[in-house]
Amino acid sequence: MPTIDFKGKTFVQNHHLAVKHHQLIPQPDKSLTDKVSLHDNLIIHGDNLIALKALLPTYAGKIKCIYIDPPYNTGNEGWVYNDNVKSPMIQEWLKKTVDKDDLTSHDKWLCMMMPRLKLLRELLTEDGAIFISIDDNEQHRLQMLLDEVFGEHCFIANIVWWSKYTIANDAKYFSRQHEYVSVYCKNIERFSLGLLPRTDEMNDRYSNPDKDKRGNWKPSPLHAKSGTDNSLYSVVFDNGVSWESPVGTYPRFSKDNLLAMYTDGRLYFGKDGKQSPASKTFLSEVKKGKTSGTLWKFDEVGSSHAANEELAELLGKGVFQNPKPSKLLRRCFQLTTDKNSIVMDSFAGSGTTAHAVLDLNSEDGGNRKFILIEQDEYADSITAKRVRRVIARNEKEKAKKGEEENQKAPLLASQKIKKTESAKPTFSFFTVGEPIEMESILQGEALPTFNEFARYLFYTATGEEFIEDLINEATGFIGESQNYEVYLFYRSDLTWLKSNALTLNAIRNLPEGKGKRRLVFAPAKYVSDEDCRENKVDFSQLPFEIYRLEK
After folding, report:
1. DSSP sequence for 341-398
2. How many other C-beta atoms can be found within 10 angstroms of the C-beta atom of residue 48?
């Protein structure tokens, strides 16, 4: 398979592995919840590469759909390369704006995208998909990069979004009216694409003129334009009507199948029963939705102009440049998520992804969750503010709809059926904190909390899902992997760390498990290796360097 080459590629290919694990610091005052949690809807403020790495222990393999809208790299966006890769060449790029005069702009963009795409792939479920908005400037390079990261066989489609309905007469060449949405999946063997809801117009084509007990149907011709001469035949039905394919066409069904359809009442001969027959296609037997095309029109999924109006209605005019319409993203999520899926956006911008998720949940009663990552300073003042207002608007509309339903069908109190009301959506706001520097643990510098340290250790040691609810700080238990029961002897206290160690008594006091070996992290060990072996204990001394045991 051809691969794409660019300056700095050798330095960023594995940069995502070298990114340190950082703490995620809860911000209750910016959250919309009484209990801040990493398992809530999330808005994270900070560098998206670092935030993605910090989310791996909790969300690796759990994200059903990812949508991102990265810089299009047109030279007008003012984006800055900011990945601290250990390379003299890339060090020169740091904190410098990428503009039209930058001869390495494409290299920098690809260097920025590659490690992020690799982490995003790790976060996807096996049947998950990623949607990436892009335009002509980088689309062809992006596809080659995605072929390399996800695999050429995982390419699904390049959707053309007809985003503008007006022509710019001052355009130098062509007036561009479209953008792209590139779609890849993680595992082509597991991936399936959903259907869009059927329209009333589609359903109106079905009726039941002969009162067929199987329900509404629409007539379909018995002939087709393709076939072979040896399939031609003529037939006379028991009702006296004869049929053969019109000249230049071929039968859609074999003679035996056609006669069986007649016996089963699946042919329609008109109101008088003597017309040329048509087959019945029953509504109950067709797809429950419609297949999506690859041309998405502005009247179906919104336009650039509609996106600006939508945001202006919520936050005022001119607060954000080039937002995407929520209808565009809602279609992505309709096709790839179920009602309990998790959706992620690591270039969150104005928060359109959360807007689309919340609206889709309101529409179909779903419980989808969103994770937004935004590194710019407007993460609270624009991104989170938009989410708050969408939630408030949807709750107001839900209450209004409930009142209208009660007024339309007034019932006696004893007759009213209690409805299960969905809880008001919440979100937890986090900022990216300091890195967990393993070398500083025994020096007492920036000590992480027990839970944060447990999350880091469990995931990096096992590569498996970390479930925070299983933690028992009293016993030190932090989780169970395929091969281990994992324990951590740790407190965020320098004096305690200097005076505590794994002892034989501590080993014997470990809870009785399921017979697996116990992987124990502790500041020191005052017990023989032989005693550890006899008690099925593997000891790992803190500070702990990043590694993964064989699964």
Report:
1. -EEEESS-TTTHHHHHHHHHHHHHT---EEEEEE-STHIIIIIIHHHHHHHHHHHHHH
2. 23
**CA-based nearest residue to 115, from 156, 70, 160:** 70
SS3 helix, strand, coil % of the chain, rounded to 5?
35, 20, 45
pTM, whole model, 2 decimals? 0.83
The pLDDT tens digits of the residues spanning 331-345 come to 999 999 999 999 999
| HEC profile of 477-522 | EEEECCCEEEEECCCCCHHHHHHCCEEHHHHHCCCCCCCCEEEEEE
CB neighbourhood size of 476 (10 A): 23
Among the listed residues 11, 6, 19, the one whose alpha carbon sits nearest the alpha carbon of residue 48:
19
Q: What percent of the chain has pLDDT over 70?
A: 94
Residues 345 and 63: their CA atoms lie apart, in Å, by 10
What is the H or E stretch that residue 406 is in? helix 385-408
Q: Which letter, b or e, does each residue of 166-178 get, where b requires 16 or more Cβ atoms within 10 Å of its Cβ?
A: eeeeeeeeeeebe
Tokens 């699946």 label which residue? 266
The DSSP code for 32 is B
**What mean pLDDT do residues 220-237 have?**
92
Helix (H) or strand (E) holding 112: helix 105-123
Q: What are phi and psi of 41, to 5 degrees?
A: -55, 140
Alpha carbon distance 457, 57 (integer Å) = 9
Strands 517-522 and 267-268: unpaired
Task: Give the mean pLDDT of 433-452.
Answer: 73
Q: Render 419-486 in DSSP notation, one character per residue.
A: P-PPPPP-BEEEEEEEE--GGGGGGTSSPPPHHHHHHHHHHHHH-S---GGG-BTTTTEEEE-SSEEE
Give the number of residues written for the chain: 551
67, 343 contact by CB (below 8 A) = yes
Q: Which residue reads 């890195």 in tokens? A: 435
pLDDT at residue 390, rounded to an integer? 98
Tens digit of each residue's pLDDT (9 = 90 or more) over 133-178: 999 999 999 999 999 999 999 999 999 999 999 999 999 999 999 9
| DSSP state, residue 239 | T
Is a pLDDT exceeding 60 seen at residue 324?
yes
CB 535 within 8 A of CB 508: yes
Tokens of 512: 């009785």
CA distance 217 to 284: 8
Q: What is the DSSP letter of 324?
A: P
pLDDT by residue (tens digit) across 250-307? 999 999 999 999 999 999 999 999 999 999 999 999 988 999 999 999 999 999 999 9
Calculate the alpha carbon distances from 309 to 175, 321, 380, 385 in Å: 22, 12, 21, 16
Q: Across the chain, what does the average pLDDT equal?
A: 91
Exposure on the CB side of residue 331, measured as CA atoms within 13 A? 22
Cα–Cα distance measured from residue 384 to residue 75, given in angstroms and rounded to the nearest whole number? 27
Confidence of residue 439 (pLDDT cuts 50, 70, 90): low
